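Reading a protein record of the kind used here takes little practice once its layout is understood. The fold follows as a row of integers, each naming the local backbone shape at the matching residue. With these conventions in mind, the following record can be read line by line:

_____
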Amino acid sequence: MSDAEEEAPRVASELRGGTLLIRLDHPEVLNSFGDRMLDELGEAFRRARQDPAVTAVVLTGRGRAFCAGANLRTVWGRHSAIMGIRKRLNPVILAMADVEKPVIAAVNGVTAGAGLGFMGACDYRIASNEAKFVPATAKIGIAPDGGMSYVLPRLIGAGRAFRWLSTGEHLDAATALQWGLVDELVPPDDVLPAALALAQAFAEVPEPAVALTKRLIRASEGNSLPEQLELEARTQDLTSGPWGD
């Protein structure tokens, strides 16, 4: 790949009503990422967090893949792997996590490697019933990255996550739904319309109920029941619920 090709924009974003549609846009390599795509993806999610016109985010890929992970021919540029992960990949995952608005993955096809991290960092995952999923890292002798070791145990359980990440088995869409890796399956042509429709449904909920619900669910992972009940009470107070004194 030439330097000029790597410098071409790799993420397209557009505001559709209140929904920021973010599309990974390098279908020739199954939307695998290099430095340029990571920079642009991080910037798109920072926009989503900061722009008050954005009420929800939909992340998808162009062509037959959602994201095939890192493009090993271009990724990290002049960085070592550890510095590339720290300085390029991890900030994107954290930028996604910082968005308090709902983030929906419209998983249009093949998802591999750190693409699973992008998918897992979303709040809800709608996938094509023809999609395929593969961790990929173990097959090339490296450890998981992109938050896979964090999100996958929470989605599919620690045992399944360990086996899947360690063996690199290909997973079909039906099994992904059964395991809880994705939340909904639709025909390929319906993936993006279904995600956009859900984003619109979120936008119609009175503010800030969706953002606060997202905050509560995330906090529950580290809270005891008494702590979570207290957080619910304090959060409810922020919305001035009709409870009186």
